[in-house]
Design brief:
Elements (H helix, E strand, L loop, with lengths): L1 E2 L8 E2 L15 E3 L4 E4 L7 E4 L6 E2 L8 E9 L5 E8 L6 E6 L5 E6 L5 E2 L4 E6 L2 E7 L6 E9 L13 E3 L5 E4 L7 E7 L4 E9 L1 E6 L5 E9 L2 E8 L5 E3 L6 E8 L5 E6 L3 E6 L5 E5 L2 E6 L5 E6 L5 E6 L7 E5 L4 E6 L5 E6 L6 E6 L6 E3 L6 E5 L5 E5 L4 E8 L5 E2 L3 E5 L6 E3 L5 E7 L9 E4 L4 H4 L1
Antiparallel strand pairs: 1-2, 3-4, 4-5, 5-6, 7-8, 8-9, 9-10, 11-12, 12-13, 13-14, 15-16, 16-42, 17-18, 17-41, 19-20, 20-21, 21-22, 23-24, 24-25, 25-26, 27-28, 28-29, 29-30, 31-32, 32-33, 33-34, 35-36, 36-37, 37-38, 37-39, 40-41
Length: 462
Amino acid sequence: MKKVPVNGGSPQTLCELGSGASRSNANGGTWNRDGVIVFATSRAPLQRVSAAGGVAKAATSLEQPGDLTHIWPQFLADGRHVLYFAVSKDSARTGAYVQELGSTQRVLGLKTLFRAVWAPPGPLLFIQEDTLFAQRMNPKTFQLEGEPAPIAEEVANNESNGRSPMAVSENGVLMYRGIGGVRNSRLTWLDREGKPLGTVGQPGDYVRVRPSPDEKHVALTVRSGAGKWDFWLMDLATGVMARLTHDGKSSTSGMAWSPDSRRLALNRAYGDVSEMDLASGKTTVLNDRMMAMDWSPDGSSLICHEAWRGGAWFALPVAAGAKPQRLEETPGGIFDFRFSPDGKFVTYASGEAGRVEVYVAAYPAFAPKRQISNGGGEDSQWRGDGRELFYGTRSGSVMSVDIRTGPVIDAGIPKVLLKTAGRVDFAAAADGKRFLLAAPVDTAPPPDVLMAVLNWSPELKQ
């Protein structure tokens, strides 16, 4: 963690975040006038450090069974009490809490599935059913009083991780992100030159695109409402879709196919990884604190990371109640983990170099290891023979790299293979000659709107 003068100057390191720090878990920080910074990291409790620098120490603790993480801290008016969002496997304990620095006691202010924001001098802002409400919070008991008042509708939120993008300044300016229009895309096949080869199915708001190993079906994460996602299965020959989940609590991290294309590992909100048998529809929870990234080529285990963390890698045997085996830990987190076709190597993305890049490493020793991308990369995938690697960039390019694995990993210079209008999900066919993309249907999809609201609170008017 670093700080930098607003008017310019050199950054100053305040503390090391430790191994396992992950871009996906940098969920907020707060700074009081006494020079104390409280922040969230991949380590589930909140951390605190002096603004002058030092060693970060835990500011909260996970003591209750099922507690997963504490995120989005905010100092209240006295600079001693911190409002934060606590996520638990027990939904009754998930909510907005207040805790004084140095104390182990916390007060539940509101049961909610989304982070809440304190607005000086007193109201608490929170979301219910896409509507933003304000309600007075007693500054001594931290309990809500009176009736909630609706402030705005169609406010963006994400039920799978509790995020709700909003902020309030001390002089009463409220800003939030509105729900943008549906970003319909259509599954489209392209050749290596970017020429369209045909489309599959109907348009939809698709987030994750994972073809089965036999390339007969594609598993999709589809938006089912604001902040809600479900898993679907599409037949690639006919475009017919079948819904796999119905509660809107699927994770946008997606799913992983078994090598025989008969089973799916589904990642659910708050860290459930389940195995679904596609023939019977039977679902078995394998672990309630893991998120699956890929299935081992022999079908015996899943490679996972801990929900709400992401630095450590685990092999999870595919059996109910099986215990995960710790494999490796990577500073900067890991993403988009994929086995090579022979199972002897892996490709993944990590922020260990300061920005997210693509790597290839031997498995399970993770040595030798080599950085493949230069300038950012993610969502890396192998060609079916293991001799070419594809990965995406946030600017919308699909890159190609020749790869040779062995005692020494030899990689060519990355080159642009396809260029798209912004970042899209893609999947490479095993032959490396076709690519399935969730191509936007609209050339200019409706944007998310950043809204500013003035004079919204009676307390602020007073």
